[in-house]
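USER:
I would value a second opinion on how I read folds in token form. Give me a protein, with the fold worked out from its sequence. Write it directly below this note and I will take it from there.

ASSISTANT:
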Amino acid sequence: FSYLWVRALAQGLAIRREMRFGWAQVGDRLEERFTLINRARIPALWVEVIGQTNMPDYWANQVRMVEPRAETHWAIRGLCTRRGLYTLGPTTLETNDPFGIFTLTLHDPVATTLMVMPPILPLPFIQVAPGGRAGEGTPRLHALDPTVSASNVREYAPGDSLRWIHWPTSARHNEYFVRVFEGAPAGDWWVILDLERGVQVGENQNATDEHGIILAASLVDLGMRSGHAVGLSAHGKDQLIWHRPAMSDEAKGSILRSLALVEPGEISLAKLLAYARPQIGQNTSLIVITPAIGGAWLAALLATRRTGAIPSVLLFDPLTFGGQQTAENLRGQLTSLGIRHQLIARELLDYRPSQNDQSAKTHWRLTAPDPQQNQKPVRVLHPGKT
């Protein structure tokens, strides 16, 4: 009797697993739908559904029962808390006969991947304009002259000066537009992200490398929405990230995917700047993101400035990340050299996960075989413990 029971369930049980599919960012909500199907003439009184995944803070395991020739549905919801590439699946079903003599295991090896990209935050506290104006420092002679005439308008982006708002256009469209000035074309931005492991401060999600990745992603988004071609360079663990300046959704997506996967490496900022220097054009806004307060990279930055790039430094405040040293000495050197810079505290890039439902921008896709398509999982039948 027990053997016939589990044999019938082996032929009748199936699982359908669907995920809201689309690119995800940290803070997005993940939802999977499960359908447990029983085509047998007997009930499955106790079915453990083991939804394997390596995604942090997400569990898809359930215990369900399903009536004869019926199906049951449920959803598992979670939050994307960390950037990276994750696997959802495989899926395993385990059940027994009523007396616990035999255990039935149905294993579905199919899995799918989900890319979780870093969050993009508004950056109203960072000023980046044509000519490389960012943070604080000594004004340059070719900085934007407020007396030049405006010839066009574009949508407002965080970081734009309020004095550039074109009020008649803003009133007509019921949203802010800013003036685009003649003689001040949108130059390229090139973001240099320092990921040398030895200079990072803090731990886990509160470390400078994670905040640097968030800041880089947000700058790429800000720059492209402001009309700049944006490039990015970084050197992670055995991996050089190199994106030439471009301005398109495809280019932004490619950069975000690189930032989703990169981990700190061993290459110093000085070496990265030396490598990038021949590739960076004149009048390019060079935006350096670093926690390195020792200043060993200053010579390489000055060499890049001599070739025509206009540097700006976004320097993480080590004290706010649990460090013991201050950045005041380096800030003094940057000021004396006329290099624009800004001190970035940890709190400036704190973010809260979004509470928005992502269904509007995604669609459902199967992450396990459709049981109607003759794709049967491997079935393993073995005696259980009495």
